Each structure stands twice: as C-alpha cells, then as structure tokens.
Amino acid sequence: MNGSKTPSAPPADEITKEIRKLSFDDKPSTNKDTKPQDQPSATLPLPQDFTVKYLGCRDAGGLWGIKHTRKPVDEMVAKAKEMKPGETLPFLKLTVSDKGVNISEMPQNVNKAFEGGFYNIDVISYGVQDLVYTRVFAMIVVREEAATSLKTHHPFQCHAFVCDSRHNARKLTFALAQAFQQFSKEVKGNKSVKRPKKFAIDLRSPEEIEVDLKEADSEA
User: Fold this and answer.
1) 131: which of 35, 122, 161, 163 is 20 to 30 A away, CA to CA?
2) Please, which residues have CB within 8 angstroms of residue 19's CB and are 6 or more apart in sequence?
3) Contact in structure between 53 and 137 (CB atoms under 8 Å)
4) Within 10 Å of residue 8's Cβ, how many Cβ atoms?
5) Does the predicted model carry a pTM greater than 0.85?
C-alpha cells in the first residue's frame, strides 16, 4: 500500500490499554516463532505513513548501536506505564520519505507533549526495532545546535515510538533504511549535496540482535 494514505486510528481507550500491557505482550518470540510476514518487502515505496504513540526522548550515549537505545527505551516504557488512568501518550503520524522523518499529530491526539516537525535524513544517525519491546521503533537524532551551544545540550537524542504491531515496527525500520539508501545515492551522484554524518540502520530481527549480543558477551 502506498504511504500517501493516512492510516486509520484505533479508539483512544485501546491506545491506553495497549501501552499499559506493552511489557507483557511484547517480549520477543523465539527464532522458530518468527513469522515470514515480519519481513517487509525488499523495496518500499516512499513516503510511508505510520500511526504511532510517542514514548518520548532521552539522551543517547552515542551515534549508533542498540547499546545506545536500549536503556533510554527501558526508561521511557517504565515512565509510560506509570501513567494515571485517563492519561495517554501522544498519538502521532510518522511519515518516512527520502528527505527524512516528519512527525505530526493525529486528529484524535489530546497529549501535546511531543516534539513534532521534520527531521532531515542527515541528522538521523541510527534506527532500530527494539529487541525487548518489539513494537517499539527507536532512532537517534543528532542535535546540530548542540555543536554551537557550548555543550549545554547533549548532542545525541534517542526518540522512541510504539507502533500498532511488531510487523509495522519492522516495516518502519525498513522504510528508514530505504530513505538512507536513496539519500546515499543522491550524495554520491551530486557533489553539491552536503556530505552527511555517518548513519546506520539495524535490519536484524530482534532475535538476531539478541543472539549477537549474547555471543559478544561470551567472547568478552
């Protein structure tokens, strides 16, 4: 389906229920339980729209790598689970295009505590589907103003979003990978385009990431 169509929105009460049971229903399955439909098609047409709940943002310890997103995601999920009855996370539309990521609120949104707007592709350094909460997509954004503010702001921020399914979290990750790929081709073919900072997208499944991390720990 082409990304130009705005996804339908679930009722607000369902949104609240989903985030409150996030840690119980979102543990990664074993490798044998991984379904083929978790893998999006090789090429996704851009733009792609996704309906998400915004968990928030935290400082990240580096430019790329799940080691810099795992702790922030855990902290944001823990905070979300402390919401009082009737409170909801910001209900947003996340659009991935070849230019970057745009975040805007859905008409049903009642929580204005979110950082909306457009993130150019060259300020996004990393994107990944979380290995514990597999409906969560996390990305690290480089704050350019931090370079000129005498280090009063942390330069890297991890933003996290809850997708409506594990499959769509995977699809969002692939969509951003597609955007990175297209941007790289544009940079190589046009010398006038600003050279980007190094960026990475982790296309391994949550199960594959977990196995690799365990192997790394055993070798240390």
Assistant:
1) 122
2) 53, 80, 81, 83, 88, 89, 162
3) no
4) 7
5) no
